[in-house]
Design goal:
This protein is an alpha/beta fold. The protein has two domains: about 5-60, no CATH class; about 65-190, Pyruvate kinase, C-terminal domain (Pyruvate Kinase, Chain: A, domain 1, 3-Layer(aba) Sandwich), CATH 3.40.1380. Helix content is about 45%, strand content about 10%. It is built from eight helices and five strands. The chain has a five-stranded mixed β-sheet. α7 (about 125-130) links the parallel β2 (about 120-125) and β3 (about 140). α1 (about 15-25) crosses α3. The radius of gyration is 19 Å and the shape is elongated.
Amino acid sequence: QMMESMISAPVPTRAEVSDVANAVLDGTDAVMLSAESAAGMYPVQTIKAMAEICVEAEKSDRVKLDTDFLDQTFTRIDQTIALGALFTAHHLNANAIAALTDSGSTAIWMSRHNIHVPIFALTSKIATQRALSAYRNVTPIGLDYTKDRDTALQEVETCLKKIGAVNKGDAVVLTSGEPMGEPGGTNTLKII
């Protein structure tokens, strides 16, 4: 009901625009329409308006990583690595973050902070890819990386170049678990 007036009107109210924008600025991963698009008179205009509001709100430069990190205590290694990757990517002006992940939790933790660096979650698990597609700033990619570490790193670079996410010489922050191919938490941060 974020755009409820658009059930019968072709433009949203100022309050609705504000509600949608604030939801994005507050870090929501997804917004949803219901009657506005299912039974409303202006479903296409409603979807376009909501998309435009979300895109503009996501351009905000409200990044408070330094204070977020200073004020938090991390007790899990994998969470510390995930948030350390954000800090590193932000301060190095990295072009991408690549998270080799089984469960997706590393990418999910990273998606909670919007630093305007795309997060690519590379996983061999289809269920993880599907789940991650709903998270902000996370692009799930299917990749079987259960090989040796050096081969996996090369495959990550090749994959990101192939989809146009990075170019030769771009900085990429990579998170993974060692030893590779075994289930367990993320414990490694590398700049490639």
